[in-house]
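REQUEST FORM: STRUCTURE PREDICTION
Request ID: SP-0412
Submitted by: Lab K.M.
Chain count: 1
Length (residues): 338
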Amino acid sequence: MKKANLFILSVISVLPLLSSCIRGEVFEDTEEDNFKALWTIIDEHYCFFDYKEKEIDLDWNTVYTKYHNRLSSNMDNAQLFEVLSEMLSELKDGHVNLYAAHDVGRNWSWYENYPSNFNDSIHKLYLGTDYKIASSLKYKILEDNIGYIYCGSFNSALGDGNISQALSYLAECSGLIIDVRENSGGELTNAEKLASRFTNERILVGYMSHKTGPGHNEFSTLEEIWLEPSKGIRWQKDVIVLTNRRCYSATNDFIKDMRQCPKVTIIGDQTGGGSGMPFSSELPNGWSIRFSACPIYDVDKNHTEFGIKPDISINMTKEDILKNRDTIIEFARNFLKK
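STATUS: Completed
RESULT:
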């Protein structure tokens, strides 16, 4: 029978903290022990318990009882996976995923329960076919001399040269729209690299803390997060950033940073959230679990786990959609003109 030690594998090299708070418990590859291993990993290392107890009335001990009662010695892998995945969904966290060969347990309620505020067919009309591409950035000059950059992901490597080329091309524009709708995240360094082009000074953008022990309240003191101005081309005119509920994880962090930059206005819908740095671990049966381990706060020391509200809230209207108009882009264009 396979055995496994409870251990944590860091997927972010700059956060090597968790090794100091691991207990060497050993679990067998049984339905009971896989359940206990998963519950214990989350119980000792998940970072949002206090916050979610307040926001969604989460009681992790009650969750244990609720789902432990659904275990049986003759359940198959699919049934066990269902129980474990539903238990994790109680956290309402898009960074919490259970990975097996046959499926991925996930909670996508951060965007599924809300209007999309994005229409791919209409968006293609705005981009046209003559847009330019610099890594993950698609950019062009709109007919009213407003620059437009669409960044649909922070996964692809985004070099300083890519950003400089785009901003240099758009330099003649009277203002700039950066559209990150539908961007569910990626590499945090890419998000920071783009945000660094919109400040001329070093600015405080938030805080981070680390788990220091198995208790729900055991964290390090808050560490300041600063955004350093880029040494490359920096934008000096007004900027609009467009958001919707699909802005998650690194994109949520990008919005957190951009809110502190001068001449920046956030327009659209509240972001989806996802402010916890994700880490990974493994169950005795080989399934892997990813979860939020280090919380990030905004400059006012507030959690952004459940999203960031825009400066101006705008939804796409049915009338505009029927006319192939993007309500949010059009509002941003008029805002910049004024």
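NOTES: The mean pLDDT is 93.
Reviewed by: T.R.
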